[in-house]
């Protein structure tokens, strides 16, 4: 068994608690759906946000999901590169799995699809 990293990103339109929490759940649900794992398989989740999202911690949404109470979570700020995508939440989910790296499915939603157009449709 290996530890694999699963990436994902989503954007929100408003720097408000509800949209940030809802988007975080939508993104993680999407990653779970296409990769078929359970919280027990997760080593940890690293969450970043752009500097313009400071209304809440996105990890709060994950912590409230059934079965995710014990999964280690960490939030951080994304590197503030000029001209980069705004209002973006990114996840790096580290999962214990036998799935080969080539079969891991990464998820990019809303305007975050522009970050990795090479992964769309895979």
TrEMBL record:
The molecular function terms in GO held by this entry are: chorismate mutase activity
Query: Keywords of this protein's UniProt record, alphabetized?
Result: Amino-acid biosynthesis, Aromatic amino acid biosynthesis, Isomerase
Q: Which reaction does it catalyse?
A: chorismate = prephenate
Name the Pfam families for this protein. Answer: CM_1
* Gene3D superfamilies attached to this UniProt entry: RutC-like (3.30.1330.40)
InterPro entries linked: Chorismate_mutase_AroH, RutC-like_sf
- Which CDD domains does this one have? AroH
EC number(s) from the headed UniProt entry:
5.4.99.5
Name of the protein in question: chorismate mutase
